[in-house]
Specification:
This protein has 415 residues and is of the alpha/beta class. 34% of the residues lie in helices and 26% in strands. The longest helix has 18 residues, at 145-162. The radius of gyration is 21 Å and the shape is globular. 50% of the residues are buried. The structure holds flavin-adenine dinucleotide. Residues 9-14, 32-34, 38-41, 44-47, 49, 222-224, 251-255, 258, 274, 276, 310, 351, 353-354, 376, 378, 380-384 line the site of flavin-adenine dinucleotide (FAD).
Length: 415
Amino acid sequence: MTSDVMVLGAGMVGVSAALHLQKRGRSVVLVDRGGVAEQTSYGNAGIIQVEGVVPYPFPRDVGKLAQYAFNMLPEAHLHWSALPSLAPWLWRYFLASTEAGQARSAAGAKPLVLASIVEHEALMREAGIDSVLRRTGYLRLYRHARQFDLAIAQETQDRERYGVNFEAVTAAGVRQLEPHLTESFHAALLMPDPVSVPDPGAVGKAYGDLFFKRGGRLERGEARTLEQTSDGGWQVQGDHGAIRAREAVVCLGPWSDDVLRKLKTWVPLGSKRGYHMHYTARGNATLNRPVLDTDNGYVLTAMTQGIRLTTGAEVARRDAAPTPVQLDRVEPAARRMFPLENRVDPQPWLGRRPCLPDMLPAIGPVPGAQGLWVNFGHHHLGFTLGPVSGRLLAEMLTGEAPFTNPAAYRLDRFG
Ligand SMILES: Cc1cc2nc3c(=O)[nH]c(=O)nc-3n(C[C@H](O)[C@H](O)[C@H](O)COP(=O)(O)OP(=O)(O)OC[C@H]3O[C@@H](n4cnc5c(N)ncnc54)[C@H](O)[C@@H]3O)c2cc1C
């Protein structure tokens, strides 16, 4: 059976694109070597970051760079051995992180980020899970007045430029918002607009179930076998034979370049790896919203599986063996901050944030490959941006007027 479209990759990005294509009358088959939302889209911090307009830049301060290079800061971890293979990506990331580059990225991100909650809400309503949204924002915690003052200055500028809201919270205010924190903080920033969910993987699965209910199907298959057929369509090898469609969309997150490379399309895709661990909490201790320890770069959030600690970024080869040293480094700080009890998972979970140098996704056609499309590279914001970028991709693929100008997301923007 030949479908209209095959969507390669059933993470948050792929399943959202599949739903939006299906809504526009296309018959769609999802292809994945696993199930829906079982990789990066399973283990993230579950925040729909509507404040995330300004990208995470490559550090340009020499002192900070040196600290990162020698693994002196817990928010980042570098594998030195990976530097030669990651250099082309890192160099472009460095170049894209000038002030002007950041402003360009923010302008590109803004239309997607601003629509992110509305697009999730629409899918959640249809999937019958809209009650999972926690409209409590998230807290950035500061121990030192100097860091807090710098953050206020930066956020004030971002509010003027991009309309990102924040509220300053006193030490007493922090205690009121999060009474189970066991450490005192100088102050905090409440980001009031972001929302969060207690299980991002379950949200992805619910979107998958909606897609199946509407007649979609998931086939196990190997995306790296993608090839064009003699009639101009696309096919991959599935567990039960060839899977064919007239058009194909690459939504393979951090693995997207595996397929594109084979088709002679080079993209500077890197991955910022991150870990999570769940913990039991002492007594009835819980958190009302995700909290970010700004000194140590980890997030703690209450999830269905326990209190989830997610780490900052590890710069390493995508497929290198896990090295969860960041988790070990920040865990003592997290235990001082909140009454964490036992680790729940047998080992830390490892995820890979798929990052292009300008911290914008690639959404649109693959130049020179008729009927082949991409939607990947959602970096730190793939849970946030899945539904909205799925909508944009579907609009472009079906010839509808796109809700925003997609020029900033062209695949060939890196030359
Ligand atoms: C620690 C951490 C915390 C994060 N926190 C947040 C957050 O709070 N908010 C937010 O918005 N984002 C967050 N992110 C980022 C977000 O998780 C990712 O951007 C997002 O999950 C990427 O989704 P995706 O669908 O592109 O990729 P994935 O979810 O990885 O999906 C890709 C799919 O492709 C499949 N696949 C790969 N190769 C093949 C192949 N050869 N053949 C067949 N199938 C294949 C995989 O099995 C997988 O199902 C976080 C990430 C990390 C690591």
